[in-house]
Design goal:
heterodimer, A: 144 residues, mainly alpha, 6 helices, B: 146 residues, 71% helix
């Protein structure tokens, strides 16, 4: 239960921050991505503010032997820079540049859903599911 | 017309909150606040027990945005002229791409850069550059704006 609440509150602060920064508005995001238009550098300030905090805080947190409510830190295993990373990031970039939504704002849009939410979010889940299912499938059929 | 205003203070404040949220999740639960990864494990909830905190985080995400809109307003409206098929294509690509590339703006951007991960830095540069090029094509060659 503690772990469940300890996930809810960071989620809440995250969603509040996204809305406060207007990152839930795809036009605001596209205003940043559109360098040739009336450029709006806001997104850079959002990312800069967030990374300034994580750069400082993560260093301190990861020096602790364990997190507060769990027995270890769950960090991604270092895989190096591979084809999947580059191709995946590029495909994501195309989808983001088309729509102005990345996954966080797409989920947060459920707080005040519009007709866009009901198109983008199901498509996002299908896209995610397609890839997850493919990796699941290949993992269970190829010996490792 | 699409008029966007530069809002440096709100952007910085929102960003700092996002950074605090990611730090709290790591400090309390030892987890990375990568939203595409969290969504991925909810879409195919295996192992099921591992989906509970993730669902909780996502409920929190929606609740946090709802609280902001309740007190300060500013919930975005739907774009009336934006083609639905483009939105659907965008969703498919964002879902597939973030799953294949193991992260999005939060996982690679906010958390990966915070961990000084070279992998995340490369991913962040790639999706930013590709998104900027794509927006140029959609808006200035395709003529799709709102």
């Amino acid at each position: 239960m503690k772990r469940v609440l300890a996930a809810f509150f960071p989620g809440m602060i995250f969603g509040f921050g996204l809305a406060a920064a207007q990152m839930t508005n795809p036009l605001k995001v596209l205003g940043f991505l559109d360098l040739a238009g009336a450029w709006d550098p806001s997104l850079l300030f959002v990312l800069g503010g967030a990374v300034a905090v994580t750069l400082l805080a993560f260093r301190f947190i990861l020096r602790q032997p364990t997190p507060i409510f769990d027995s270890r830190f769950y960090l991604p295993a270092s895989q190096g820079i591979d084809r999947a990373l580059l191709l995946g990031a590029a495909i994501f970039g195309v989808g983001w540049g088309i729509s102005g939504y990345c996954p966080g704002p797409a989920i947060a849009s459920l707080a005040a859903p519009t007709s866009e939410t009901w198109v983008f979010l199901p498509a996002l889940l299908v896209g995610t599911g397609l890839h997850r299912w493919r990796t699941f499938h290949s993992r269970s059929h190829t010996p490792t | 017309m699409h008029i966007t205003h530069f809002t440096p203070l709100n952007a910085l404040l929102g960003g700092v909150l996002i950074g605090i949220a990611a730090s709290l999740l790591l400090w309390l639960n030892g987890r990375i606040a990568g939203i595409s990864g969290i969504v991925g494990h909810v879409v195919i909830p295996w192992p099921p027990k591992e989906s509970v905190w993730r669902l909780s985080f996502l409920f929190g995400l929606v609740a946090g945005a709802a609280i902001y809109y309740f007190f300060w307003g500013g919930a975005p409206l739907a774009r009336t002229e934006f083609p639905g098929w483009l939105l659907a294509l965008g969703g498919l690509l964002v879902g597939f791409g973030t799953s294949l590339g193991s992260g999005c703006t939060s996982g690679h951007g906010v958390c990966g850069l915070g961990r000084r991960s070279l992998r995340s830095l490369v991913a962040t540069i790639v999706f930013l550059v590709v998104a900027i090029l794509t927006t140029f094509v959609v808006r200035h060659i395709g003529g799709v704006y709102s």
